[in-house]
Specification:
Length: 240
Amino acid sequence: MNVRLRHDAIVRTLRRNGTSTIGALSQEVGASRRTILRDIGALRDEGYVIHSDVGRGGGVQLDPQSLHTTAKLLVPEVFALLISVAAMRAAGNLPFADLADLGLAKIERSLSADKVRDLRAMLACLHIGQLSPLQDLSDMGRMDPDLLPAFETAFLARRLLRFRYRDAQGRETQREVEPQAMLVLPPLWYLVGWDPDRHGFRHFRMDRISSPEALAETNFRRRHVPFEDDVCPYNELRKG
């Protein structure tokens, strides 16, 4: 678990439980007591008010009022929220859509102008559709948590994205593509990239991508992704 995810887990645990011990937090996030103490110090530096009680039965407690002034969302985090809500709406299983939209609107208004610009650019590359009933989901896995931030960096800065990819037959290769778009066909997510070596678009199931890395800036050109021609890919031989 990286530092950002660990900090979020600590705040979430303290918010839900009220008071927790260093030992309990250590077990919760899978880190040493020394690391947890260092994390709490870093969170305090960010503005979170965390009280400590020493002695038997003591622990750490988060002042709930500090959450309203210190919560900071990154562009990929807001992007992930927007995608998730849009995907649930497309699937027809978002019962509180209006409330979700109101909450997301408040989050967007809190972003700086440069983050709003980046968010709009990422939303412009997004397409959400319906999954073909012919798609095999038996081997569906979890997505690498580093993939969305890597996509953000590579897409906005126009860098090649390098990653390991496992195809439908289990063969693993290293790929380098120009990240052009993202296709969401709930529950599957696809990275749509232009492959310079193959001179064409390729769909990569995001749950089959590992070790994503944005390379040096290449300033590749934005390309029109022909979603209208094939928005529901299901033939695995065409992927990657």
